[in-house]
Write the structure tokens for this entry.
Amino acid sequence: MRTIPVKTNPPYTVTIGPGLLRDCGARLRERIPPCHMAVVTDSIVGPLYLETVTESLSAAGYAVSTFEFPAGEESKNVSTLSDILEFLARERLTRSDCLIALGGGVVGDMAGFAAAVYLRGIRYVQMPTTMLSAVDSSVGGKTAIDLKAGKNLAGAFLQPAAVLCDTDCLETLPPEVFADGTAEAVKTGVLCDEGLFALFEDGTLKADPAEVIARCVEYKAGVVERDEKEQGERKLLNLGHTVGHAIEKCSGYAIPHGHAVAAGLAVMARAAERLRWTSGPIAERVGRCLEAQGLPVSTEFSPEALAEAALADKKRAGDSITIVVPKEIGTCELLKIPVSELLFVIGTGWEA
């Protein structure tokens, strides 16, 4: 069992290990007094884990209500958010109560955003069930929904009261869903740690995913503590996301987030190397690592289509956009470029 502190205001802990959903009630009683717990989940996770969680919460003395919505990125919208808020109101949750996000990144975003705006903010707990949400989205307090114009364009910052990451959940993931989460982990290795990146090359990821999750969470926790509202350093976590979000949008969100980010990361690594922004060759190594996890390193969408989709990216500011450039494995930097140059950069790295 690993416990990682996140020293935001207020602070919280990320607990990583097996059996946490079964014991969630007792663990939450250590920090949250008896109250009304509203569990939000989706149609895939609910049948697997909802009963276990509600029984544990009830045994610990919590009143429990549940809400389930159709799984998938297509549910990450204003309509689903409205449904969750109406559910919370019907159940008469107060500011002393708590919402639980039980699921992957979409559930975490939806439940977190609902917690941020219901009654101008109530507590919530993240219980990630996918590799992607475990290594990345459950930590840091970023919540959002998609708009027709683009991904994650409406949202709020709200740090969770706790994160319980049950590694047993990884055993029920289909291979492609597990792979989807490894994209964010590989991204973290490129960002911060040659040693972490090497874990994806030597097989440690599949042999000991808890170690990889802990390493990724420790890095992200440090970044969030220093830059909670993404004014500077935290923007580095968007490595691969400008192109990745554009791929998601162009596909009508049929391509899952991690696969899109993997392709976006590969495009940016090739572009950086070809434009001599790197300290040496890195693109081939990044590409091999992604492919070894079952992830794509290219996209069928044209540079023109990707650049156009990226114009709605929230990292754009007026006539400029900030991209994350990998210098070498373990070191990246932010680069502000004119929007007019984005097509050239994407086109440079587009072809493998």
About this structure: Residues 78 and 145 are 7 Å apart (CA to CA). The two ends are 41 Å apart (CA to CA). DSSP finds 14 helices and twelve strands in the chain. The mean pLDDT is 94.
